[in-house]
Amino acid sequence: MKKTLVLIAILTLALWATSHAIIGIGVRAGMGSYGNGSSKSGLLLGAHVDFTALPMIGLEASATYWPKKEESTSGSYKTTLNYSVISLDGTAKYKISLPGSPLVPYIGAGPGLYMTKVKSETSPAPLPPAVASWDTSQTKFGIHGALGANLKLPTMPVSFGVQGKYSYILSDPKSHMLSIVGLMTYNF
To answer: What global pTM score does this model have?
Structure first.
């Protein structure tokens, strides 16, 4: 009998939460910096899904793409380095209530996967044993903290925000990622 009551209570809570849930889908753009000793910075782009079932608690899943290109010359050789990071993050957010204000600041944290790729090309092709091109890629696990704020106007389904995120890569303690992005979210 107790198991049945617990199951009914859980189902009732789940139905209540989903009927009051706000789901948002959005895009993000800003500046990012990635490094493991020496940081490289540049423009980043991404998308996110935001889920709020309780007024002060939210969940966010985001994907971000950060590309960077550098060129250098040495004598008659030109070397091009292409870096890229794709991050897949999950963030639990605690929203701070400001009664009567359309601004909702929040603090959050969560895990993430960081897929890095570096590709180098040298032209003209150098003499052996040097190589003309090489590439490497890795997937790393990390954790992050986030601070942000959303502005939700009462008559619009679209909200705007800003978010700063610092990611610490656990599988490579020297690596980190810092990003500051602007957000636009369409709320259902």
So the answer is: 0.80
